[in-house]
Amino acid sequence: MSRPFALIVLVAAIAFAVAPFVTPPFTGYEPGQFPVDIPRPAIQPAGYAFAIWSVIFLWLIAHAGYGLWKRQDDPAWARVRPALTVALVLGTVWLAIAGASPVWATAVILVMAAAAILAFLQAPTEPDRWILSAPLAIFAGWLTAASLVSSGILLAGYGYTGNEEAAYDMLGVILILTPLVQSRKPRMPVYSLTVVWAMVGVAVANWGSGSYVAWVALGIAALVLIAVGWLWRRGQRNF
Q1: Is the pLDDT of residue 61 over 60?
Q2: Distance between CA atoms of 158 and 153, rounded to whole angstroms?
Q3: What are the tens digits of pLDDT across the range 181-200?
Q4: CA 178 to CA 51: how far, in whole Å?
Q5: Nearest of 185, 166, 178, 180 to residue 222 by alpha carbon
Q6: For 146-169, what is each residue's pLDDT tens digit?
Q7: Is residue 25 pLDDT above 90, yes or no?
Q8: Of 115, 204, 110, 116, whose CA–CA distance to 151 is shortest?
Q9: 105-118, pLDDT tens digit by residue?
Q10: Residue 144: predicted pLDDT
Q11: Among 223, 225, 43, which Cα is nearest to 147's?
């Protein structure tokens, strides 16, 4: 049973990486998809930040390939495969969903994020630190940020909050959620560093806009880094 499941993860990872090349280009939700016209959502990172997907795709394929080649029957690897498969399969169809319905896209990416975080938390940090734990950490970290970005855009786009207020709300959730997840895996800071990457992207996107979103995003990034450092030191002492 382990070999077929390992093969499924590899196929799902490859399909996930190929999906952007076979679906219509997605550069963000269109303003016309929402009742409230918001030309540029305040919670959305600058475009360069999304380049991290290339690293995520390649690292997940390497993870899946190594798992099939060397870790088919390893219980630690087998434990993460169900949740990871869910996240990968949903990710493969997410771009098509996003172009059709922001509501469904937000629901799907929240489930993706939950599945990716679960896989990350299920993976031991050692001994396969950089091929088991780290790829799941970067995947979970980016989906944590991306799911809250999508949620913030939805809140503002449907008029539940203002544009900047939605950004502040989601940044607040990130400040609480990121250290909470990281505290479960203090010796794998890739998770939080990925979230920080997204927060810096939000700051860059809002720089010079006249709002405080950029400063709040930078402040939260700094607080997350402080929390990561403290958790890392505590994890090293307990290791």
Answers
A1: yes
A2: 8
A3: 999 999 999 999 999 999 99
A4: 21
A5: 178
A6: 999 999 999 999 999 999 999 999
A7: no
A8: 110
A9: 999 999 999 999 99
A10: 98
A11: 43
Cβ atoms of 153 and 102 within 8 Å: the answer is yes
Q: Angle 215-160-151 (CA atoms, 0-180°, nearest 5)?
A: 60
Of the candidates 27, 45, 38, 41, the residue with the CA atom closest to the CA atom of residue 218? 45
**Contact between residue 142 and residue 57 where contact means Cβ atoms under 8 Å apart:** no
Contacts of 228 (CB under 8 A, 6+ apart): 179, 182, 189, 192, 193
Give the ranges where 30-186 is alpha helix by DSSP (H): 52-70, 75-100, 102-122, 134-157, 163-182
DSSP assignment, residue 132?
I
For residue 149 the two structure tokens come to 């970005």
Here the tokens at position 133 are 């734990």
Instruction: Yes or no: say if 63 and 8 are a contact pair by the CB < 8 Å rule.
Output: no
The ranges assigned to domains in the chain are 2-20+48-238
Q: What is the pLDDT of residue 147?
A: 98
Please say whether the beta carbons of 60 and 140 come within 8 A: no
